[in-house]
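Reading is simple: each integer encodes one residue's backbone shape. An example follows:

___
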Amino acid sequence: MTEEEKAQAKAERKLKKQQEEKMQQEQEKQESLAQETTTNQESEIKNSESVLESSAIITSKLTQSSNSSFSIKLEKDMLGEEAITRLNGVANSLLKENQYKISLVIEEEEEV
């Protein structure tokens, strides 16, 4: 092998090693982002669930018949920020394959 061929082979090995390291870093970055996204989603669900369990009047019914029904009633005066969180929590409790009838009334209260 000539000196030029040795240098070429060395450069190719170095380039291949750099590419492998870059691919590994990208894979680790993607895995980290996926894990972070999952953690954030789990945190949002837990927050939504804990908000739904707090001071609002909430009733749920689950009947034992062959056609189970799910009912939520929420009545409370709250700020928009809290309402958004609660509505997101309710929306997250719905199943994609089920059909729901939704009646929603939102009224803005005048400040006193």
Q: What stands out?
A: The chain has one domain: 3-92. The chain is about 55% helix and 10% strand. Confidence is low (pLDDT under 50) at residues 60-66. Residues 3-92 form one domain.
